[in-house]
Write a structure and sequence with these properties.
This protein is of the alpha+beta class and about 350 residues long. The chain has a domain at about 65-175: DD-peptidase/beta-lactamase superfamily (Beta-lactamase, 3-Layer(aba) Sandwich), CATH 3.40.710.10. About 40% of the residues lie in helices and about 10% in strands. The protein contains 14 helices and 10 strands. It has helices at about 5-20, 60-70, 80-85, 85-90, 90-100, 105-110, 125-135, 150-160, 165-175, 200-210, 230-235, 250-260, 265-270, 335-345; strands at about 25-30, 35-45, 50-55, 185, 195-200, 225, 245-250, 295-300, 305-310, 315-320. The strands form 3 sheets. It has a 5-stranded antiparallel beta sheet with strand order 2-1-10-9-8, sandwiched between helices. A 3-stranded antiparallel beta sheet has the order 3-7-4. The radius of gyration is 20 Å and the shape is globular. About 50% of the residues are buried.
């Protein structure tokens, strides 16, 4: 049995073990290097071409577009967000709250913006007004605070500089030039889409705990298939936002990871390294113990990417861990670690 055959068997065994343990009902996994796919396996409803709600892996697509715009000279990494979005400076409160924030801080989650706010509770307000509402009700936070608001702003920034909707930016900036295939906002219903959850029970609980009222949640018993799980993306942004909303198959994100693994652009290489100003973060990407010798990111629905230029190895793992009628207490970190350990043991050039 050669290495690829052994890896294939390992992936299938890991998927079966964690599915049986209740970590997810369906999943699709790919292991690859900078030249080829080494193995791919699926379980449950998922097939190798199945499309998942990738949740916060949307942020990686958004970050990549911003970094490419910086490399082309259209943006400056340390340019202030108020310079690119002057409407923020037109309001005295928003100007005071955002005028020191630059793109690097948004990309590294060091912007002082809060982690989350239910924009969909700001009835009838546009994004700028809703942002003001959110920031008047939250305090600035120091250090690294993982924030959806950072990437909401970056999505709006892309629309501003490209002068087109974000879903078109995605297609023209990434999907088409990189031949990513199935990756889109508001996916084609004909695609083989794996359901992500039953309604938004977790967000309903988050709102209750924080004293927010919203009567527009999707029914808790209705499967979400092709509708983004993230509440802000779905209810406020109509399914298209810089922080969440993309649907894709594992091959699309394998290709996006490989784009980074083979990039000659110094900025794209730097994005994969831990930043001294932002422990545990690259520029758009995450670093640290969860990503040995490399970087990656995760998504709330149970998706994750990991890749290492040094080890010449990558893993994409998509699951629908929320697709249970009960709350699933199993996080996917242990599953992703098992995948990485198997891949390293058999395929890494570090050994």
């Amino acid at each position: 049995m050669n290495i690829k055959e052994r890896l294939q068997r390992e992936l299938e065994d890991i998927l079966a073990r964690y599915a049986q343990a209740g970590y997810f009902p369906s999943a699709c996994v790919r292991v690859f290097n900078r030249e080829e796919t080494l193995a791919a396996a699926c379980i449950g409803e998922a097939k190798k071409d199945s499309v998942f709600d990738v949740a916060s892996l949307t942020k990686i697509a958004t970050a990549t577009q911003v970094l490419l715009a910086v490399s082309r000279g259209e943006l400056s990494l340390h340019g202030k967000i108020t310079d690119y979005m002057p409407e923020l400076a037109e309001d005295s409160f928003l100007r005071a709250r955002t005028e020191t924030i630059d793109l690097y801080q948004l990309l590294t989650h060091t912007s002082t913006l809060p982690a989350w706010y239910p924009f969909y509770t700001c009835r009838g307000e546009d994004f700028t007004a809703a942002l003001k509402t959110a920031l008047t009700r939250t305090e600035p936070v120091q250090g690294v605070v993982y924030s959806d608001l950072n990437f909401m702003l970056l999505g709006k920034l892309l629309e501003r500089i490209r002068k087109k909707p974000l879903e078109r930016c995605l297609q023209e900036d990434l999907v088409q030039p990189l031949s990513l295939g199935r990756m889109a906002y508001r996916p084609d219903p004909a695609w083989p889409i794996v359901p992500s959850s039953f309604g938004n029970p977790i967000e309903e609980e988050m709102c209750r705990d924080r004293g927010f009222s919203f009567d527009g949640f999707r029914p808790a018993g209705r499967p979400l298939r092709g509708e983004v799980n993230d509440g802000n993306s779905w209810y406020f942004f109509g399914g298209v936002a810089g922080h969440a909303g993309i649907f894709a198959d594992t091959e699309a994100y394998e290709k996006l990871c490989r784009f980074y693994m083979t990039a000659e652009d110094p900025l794209l290489q730097e994005a994969q390294r831990g930043q001294a100003e932002a422990p545990g973060r690259g520029i758009g990407l995450q670093t640290g113990m969860s990503y040995p010798h490399g970087c990656g990111h995760t998504g709330f629905t149970g998706t994750g990417i990991y890749f290492s230029r040094e080890a010449d190895l990558g893993v994409v793992s998509f699951t629908n861990r929320l697709y249970y009628r009960r709350k699933n207490e199993n996080a996917t970190w242990e599953f992703r670690r098992a995948l990485q350990e198997a891949a390293f043991a058999l395929c890494s050039r570090l050994f």
